[in-house]
Design goal:
The protein has 320 residues and is α/β, with parallel strands linked by helices. Helix content is 43%, strand content 21%. Strands 4-3-5-12-6 form a five-stranded mixed beta sheet. The protein has a five-stranded mixed beta sheet with strand order 9-8-10-7-11. It has a two-stranded antiparallel sheet with strand order 1-2. The longest helix has 21 residues, at 68-88. Belongs to the LysR transcriptional regulatory family.
């Protein structure tokens, strides 16, 4: 357990230096943000290393890599700094009606189809001076682009977050089958044989045809024929209207496609894993009035959009 003498060596400046280094992973950039020279930041880091008896950061190439000890204490330090900031700098209540500027959200295209339109419409009503910017986002680069300030938050299937990020659960995204009944003359619900024997369209940004569906089908002794793969969900409706084929897509976008293009939807005839859709944002934005209002607005809009489309899922109470 840390003694009183050790605690006295750790002041607010040291904790702030640690927090910025965790975010920047670079001494020169961190020193610039802290309005410190590199020697001053290096001295602060040396004091913190001595107090905690840990290296905290090791140099890897031109950057810094946090040690396991640094990663373990980072969330508590971020929470402490956020609490101090809230205590000494009480923020005025955010007023969306008078605010002018941009709200930026990162989403993959299937979630954009379900939520972007309703979100833009609600924002226009509540904050007429604001502009909504949608940024194409994939889970592999969401965390990096979030740190770069590309968007306020990301909605996707995210990997395990960094200690300076918060990942809030939204809903588990189930799959649904969609096809043109005039082309593919099958009646819902589909049998496993009808599903496996039909021609299939898939969506893959990188052009990969094999998915978890093929793994699930393989367990039943069936193999499907993938006749085409497109990089975006937006290409599916016209393709399905042109040929006797079926696609298995996230339920939220599948129901939107069915309503807009007169397509048939039904549940898959086999159990498929559901993807956990989450909201990813920076821990430092947790108490920011504008960012908090925008996140709450999205949760409200997404909840209503899921219900209106007939989806079987709803926004997690933990996120709300």
């Amino acid at each position: 357990m840390m003694n009183d003498a050790t605690l006295r060596k750790i002041d607010l400046n040291l904790l702030l230096a640690f927090s910025v280094l965790m975010q920047e992973r670079n001494v020169s950039r961190a020193a610039e943000r802290l309005l410190l020279g590199q020697p001053g930041l290096s001295a602060a880091l040396r004091r913190l290393r001595e107090a905690l008896d840990d290296e905290l950061f090791v140099r890897v190439g031109r950057g810094l890599q946090p040690t396991p000890r640094a990663l373990s204490i980072a969330p508590a330090i971020e929470d402490a700094l956020s609490g101090i900031e809230r205590a000494i700098r009480p923020q005025a209540e955010f007023d969306p009606a008078s605010w002018q500027g941009e709200f930026r959200i990162g989403m993959c295209d299937n979630l954009e189809s379900a939520f972007f339109g309703p979100l833009a419409a609600r924002l226009l009503k509540l904050s007429p001076g604001a502009r909504l910017i949608g940024i194409a986002s994939e889970k592999r680069d969401a965390a990096r682009r979030l740190d770069e300030g590309v968007f306020d938050f990301s909605v996707s299937v995210h990997d395990e977050p960094a200690s300076w990020h918060i990942r809030a659960p939204l809903f588990d995204q189930a799959s649904i089958c969609i096809y043109d009944a005039a082309q593919l003359r099958l009646k819902a619900p589909l049998s496993l044989e009808d599903f496996a024997n039909a021609a299939h369209l898939t969506v893959s940004f990188e052009g990969n045809a094999a998915t978890s569906i093929d793994i699930a089908l393989g367990r039943t002794g069936h193999v499907r024929q993938v006749v085409a793969t497109v990089p975006r969900f937006s290409a599916l409706p016209t393709a399905l209207r042109a040929m006797p084929a079926i696609a298995t897509v996230p339920e939220s976008i599948g129901r939107c496609m069915a309503q807009l293009h007169g397509l048939t939807i039904c549940a898959p005839p086999l159990a498929l894993p559901a993807d956990p859709v989450t909201m990813l944002y920076r821990r430092v934005d947790q108490a920011d009035g504008r960012a908090r209002w925008f996140r709450r607005l999205f949760l409200d809009v997404a909840s209503q959009a899921l219900e209106a489309s007939g989806c079987r899922v709803s926004i997690s109470r933990a996120a709300a």
